[in-house]
Fold:
Amino acid sequence: MRRRRGHRTEGQFDVDRHVGARLRTRRTMLGMSQSQLGKTAGITFQQLQKYENGTNRVSASKLYQFATVLRVPVSFFFEGVGGKPRGERGPAYQDLKSLHKRETLEFVRALARISNLAARKSLADLIFALEGRRPPPHASR
Structure:
């Protein structure tokens, strides 16, 4: 398939969005703002937003720089690429998609900061109860 210069195929947009989502996920997990990460990478927070949304493609050197700052291998940004086509994505994909939501990431970070194991166990039990199921044996430890 031949394409005109400057035009990208839909598959390329999917990879760019995926890389951007992984960038946003890791940044949020570390509690960094877009401004903070942008400053360390020598770009504006607006440019970082474009990377995170998949609007602009991240260059290899910039991706390497992000990986260094965020303390992950470059391959982290591509984990999960190449799955099923959009129309064939099932519930597992939707579960993964929810992991990229800011509130989910902030909740996980907050949960990890609770040092009282009994309180953390009780909170996990409450979450499973609200969901309407029993906690798995490993979740209550």
User: Anything to note?
Assistant: Residues 1-5, 86-94 have pLDDT under 50 and may be disordered.
